[in-house]
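Input record (Table S2, row 301):
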Amino acid sequence: MPSTALPALPCYLNGEYTLLPDAKVSVMDRGFIFGDGIYEVVPVYGRCLFRFEQHMARLERSLAELRIPNPHTRSQWRAIAEQLVADFARGTDEDPEKIEQMVYIQVTRGVAMRDHAMLPGLTPTVFVMTNTMKLPAERLRQDGVNCVTAEDFRWEKAHIKSTSLLGAVLARQISVDAGATETLMFRAGQLSEGASSNVWIVKDGVLLGPPRDNLVLEGIRYGLLEEICKTHGIPFELRSISRQEVLAADEVLLSSATKEVLPVTRIDGQPVGDGHPGPIYAQLYAGYQAAKLQARLRRPA
Ligand code: PDD
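Output record (N-(5'-phosphopyridoxyl)-D-alanine complex):
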């Protein structure tokens, strides 16, 4: 039996560039023992890190919430990510301009004997990897996806992009078991988010999303969709959204780094609106693709 079945993808661990099968951390890492860490998932299109500054700003916020010192400056983070993207491109036959990939960044509090207290002075563990990003198939964009609903049983600090993801794993499995794409979660009858995505509704031409508060992870696509709405003259509003409003919406959408923006056409077996992806989705998706192109054009040669 091979000791590992991990692919030989490039990664970075605590100052060293290596390959996934060779990257090893201590069993006493607080990420392993407590899930005491944070992460980011940054999409990369044609070697261009998409919305990197916004991802860095959220990484800084998450670290500050957990009182973990940020081990790198933004330019150091960028250099690590770009090095891995370049290493990845060298290891494939694909045209680098066409590769759609993601960079995963994780920082944990570090290694120490087990103690719930935060133990200041530890050296954070830094792990970064990259892989191709499998965007939703064209058929899902044409037909829309099927979702199920569930009570949001996660903790009340959902705004931290924490590696403690057991709530998300349990929530996602509800949709896996139901053969659905995502689990839409409600807390006391109000929409929060998906297991690993944000959820939006459209009513009478307005794009509505839950407020930026502690009950949802503010996806980097919050800011992006707001910008696209501005460009296309689509009214954009953040406020509490009831379960009834979701079920009576004209359109429902998911957004995340790996889904971009994706139409939901069935919830708990019932059609959303007329059961087909709607016109606001089409505009947001087109705006998203334009933003990707623009970011690549702005990239220094
Ligand atoms: N998930 N809400 C939750 C709970 C998430 O896990 C994610 C992203 C989002 C959307 O955030 P963004 O637009 O920045 O990707 C919202 C990532 C992709 C993941 O865990 O793999």
